[in-house]
Task: inverse folding
């Protein structure tokens, strides 16, 4: 069976590239990996790459010229959420405090039985979770 070694990037379509880039830098600690640039002509949406320095996760932030202007909805077919892991409960609690300090609305810490997590949305309500797997 073919395999792969890691995630190359996650591409997100947003309504306002500047607002989304600022959110990901300020709240999640991503850094610009490229300037805003045009994609392939047939795609008709410029993009900007961001990279998280600790995890190496790369986000492609795309703002299509012809976009719907609607907000993210996890009930539609497609992406439900993105989850990133932390090493312990103190780091999960630190994220809760960090989200509060940046005025980012979030869920309480939830216990799914196999993980504890907190959920929040970006400026387009694209859902994220800070995830602490439990043994």
Result:
């Amino acid at each position: 069976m073919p395999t792969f070694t890691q995630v190359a990037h996650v591409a997100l379509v947003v309504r306002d590239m500047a607002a989304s880039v600022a959110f990901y830098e300020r709240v999640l600690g991503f850094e610009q990996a490229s300037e805003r640039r045009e994609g392939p002509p047939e795609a008709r949406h410029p993009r900007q790459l961001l990279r998280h320095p600790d995890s190496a996760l790369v986000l492609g932030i795309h703002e299509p010229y012809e976009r719907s202007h609607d907000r993210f909805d996890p009930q539609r077919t497609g992406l439900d959420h993105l989850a990133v892991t932390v090493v312990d409960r103190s780091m999960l609690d630190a994220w809760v405090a960090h989200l509060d300090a940046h005025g980012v609305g979030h869920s309480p810490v939830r216990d799914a039985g196999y993980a504890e997590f907190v959920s929040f949305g970006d400026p387009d309500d694209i859902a994220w979770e800070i995830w602490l797997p439990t043994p």
In short: The beta strands are 10-13, 31-32, 47-51, 58-62, 82-85, 110-111, 115-121, 127-133. Helices lie at 17-28, 89-101.
